[in-house]
Amino acid sequence: MSDKDLEARHLDTLDRDLGRFSNLEYAAAYISRPLVAPGIAFVFIVLAGLAAALFLGSTSQTLIVVTAAVFGAYMALNIGANDVANNMGPAVGANALSMGGAIVIAVIFESAGALIAGGDVVSTIAKGIVAPEALNTQASFVWAMMAALLASALWVNLATWIGAPVSTTHAVVGGVMGAGIAAAGFGAVNWEQMGTIAASWVISPLMGGGVAALFLWFIEARIIHRDDKIAAARIWVPVLVGLMAGAFAAYLALKGLKQLIDVSMGTALLAGLVIGVLCWAIMIPVTRHQSEGLENRNKSLKVLFGIPLVASAALLSFAHGANDVANAVGPLAAIVHASTTGDFAGDVSIPLWVMLIGAFGISFGLCLFGPKLIRMVGSQITKLNPMRAYCVALSAAITVIIASALGLPVSSTHIAVGAVFGVGFFREWDSERRLRKARMAIPEAEHLTSDERRRRKLVRRSHVLTIGAAWIITVPAAALLSGMLYWLLSVFAG
């Protein structure tokens, strides 16, 4: 064999070996990819614990506070992974925002809401579920808050894994209730308050779905089904955007800025009216300019709803960050306060370092684990376009205002997802109605079989059942888990 042949065989062998190494590297990268997000999350949780140790210093309570900070960071990650999807899902599903753009906007506005308008003061017992005097000692209080925090985080983590958007507030309430029962018996729980929370399971999605369906009907009747859609849009889009701006102004005044400014319902509605009229006037020339040269078809209308939809997603994120950061840091702040002062019956202020754990945790959770739920809410329950997604966002703001005026307990998560259901079920009803009209006009038209009817359902029933079941069992599941964790903590750490 010549030297040239030997060299060729050597190169072939080398190529095969390099190919094997490339395949091995590719396989290793493929296997390790799912571990990147959990790895980053783990690093964040460790850093939260180290930050707690740094700010508290070396005391007899350092280990307890560090453990609580770890649990709080874990809860914040889960809030970002689950809850934020309700704000961003419709805009992403309607293709008004890319997944990357949605995450960037949500991170900025969630963090801003948490840090600027997040709860300066939270009750030591979430939502008045358990009377503080029922927990006789500081140790009982700390273990109860610790158990509630970890139980709610574990439950929200499980819900995210199965693809069910749940109320993190309900999870925390369930956790506090379960720990309170384990610590002081059933008499320690405010059952009247629990009844109002249970009522919100029904009130929130029905109100959200009804308001969203009503606005979709209005848009279809006044714009989509008109002969000249563009002319109709020039009239009604500024009105709808002004209504949205006014609703969000009132919504933020009542919910997002309540810790900065004490605003009454009347003042919030007046501010909303002024801002709504101002935005309506601004949008008249803007809409006319945007609609120039558009074809007279439904696809053209999507352009006019894109910017309002993005703005609504940002405002919802700000309000969510301001309100729901307390679900992660409220129990943590209570533990810090009780551990450092010995007082567990009064209100507590949230230290800045605790608020930072909540704000950054929500942002990291969204970036690392949020896309799954965003896709599910935005596109897998029912198909959304900008008009339908706009109805979902507007419903979220208006329903909260109506519920606040009536004194009804509602969940922002249930409202948003209920609005998606409402839009989908309205489309089903409207499609059936038009089909019946067509059959009456043409009696000899072919009738649909039952199988064909099932295929034409516009809302995926599997998601309705999964999400509904998760909503119903969130409080009892978190309560049961929290009671078990409280018993373990009090036995092994007490």
TrEMBL record:
The chain crosses the membrane at residues 35-56, 62-80, 92-117, 141-164, 171-191, 197-219, 231-254, 260-282, 303-322, 350-369, 389-406, 412-429, 464-489. One of its GO terms (cellular component) is membrane. Pfam families: PHO4. It is a multi-pass membrane protein. It is found in: Membrane. The keyword Membrane applies. One of its GO terms (biological process) is phosphate ion transmembrane transport. The keyword Translocase does not apply. It comes from the Bacteria. Keywords: Membrane, Phosphate transport, Transmembrane, Transmembrane helix, Transport. One of its GO terms (molecular function) is phosphate transmembrane transporter activity. Its main location: membrane. Belongs to the inorganic phosphate transporter (PiT) (TC 2.A.20) family. This is Phosphate transporter. It comes from Paracoccus amoyensis.
